[in-house]
Amino acid sequence: LQLVVLISGTGSNLRALLEASEDAEFPARVVAIGADRECEGLALGEEFGIPAFTVPFTAYESRDAWGEALVEQVRRWNPGLVVLSGLMRLVPPGVVDAFSPYLINTHPAYLPEFPGAHGVRDALAAGVTETGASLIVVDNSVDGGPIIAQERVPVLPGDTETSLHDRIKPVERRLLIQTVLDIANSHLDLKELSA
Ligand SMILES: N[C@@H]1O[C@H](COP(=O)(O)O)[C@@H](O)[C@H]1O
User: Where does N(1)-(5-phospho-beta-D-ribosyl)glycinamide bind (predicted)?
Assistant: First the structure.
């Protein structure tokens, strides 16, 4: 299974996928890394010998125009699955049409709780005692697509956004790697899940 992973930040979840795919038994390969801006995670391309590209959101006059350029770039790698891993952009309908349901996203909350760009912060502000991590199929809603996998994560007294996010990320990684495994081994059918 060929993966293209799209990021906007540090890429710690991407690193987990890259490390997993170094195992010859792992049935998936990250074939390219893409980003909507210059960001730290792009350096993982050089470290792991994987091509990396940037489609800078700010270089396009509209989200749709950015989406068209992104689709063109991603299609070059003929992915069986496109993974949004910390891509901090709402992808336009053109991207969803091009790849969904083989377009998945990780989210640092227990959806449908706390969708959107500030899931960790919103959970803290709400004063909940538990939040979580979710993996979803991307559709044209804001984090409202079919849920593939999710798990609860406790919010501890004294938590900051960073400490809570650092507790959520390892769960996201585990769900992401297990999901890629299940898709590659045909144990999970995203088309069926999205029907
Ligand atoms: N949208 C969220 O942003 C974070 C990205 O982390 P990283 O993989 O760039 O470290 C992840 O928690 C992801 O769910």
Answer: 11-13
Structure tokens at 36: 């909507």
Region label for 148, one of left (φ > 0), alpha (ψ between -120 and 50) or beta (otherwise): alpha
Digit-by-digit pLDDT tens for the chain (195 residues) are: 999 999 999 999 999 999 999 999 999 999 999 999 999 999 999 999 999 999 999 999 999 999 999 999 999 999 999 999 999 999 999 999 999 999 999 999 999 999 999 999 999 999 999 999 999 999 999 999 999 999 999 999 999 999 999 999 999 999 999 999 999 999 999 999 999
List active site positions: 107
> Which protein residue has the closest C-alpha to ligand 1 atom 1?
86
Query: Has 185 been labeled as part of a binding site?
Result: no
Is the pTM here over 0.90, yes or no?
yes
Residues 6+ apart with CB under 8 A from 27: 1, 181, 184, 185
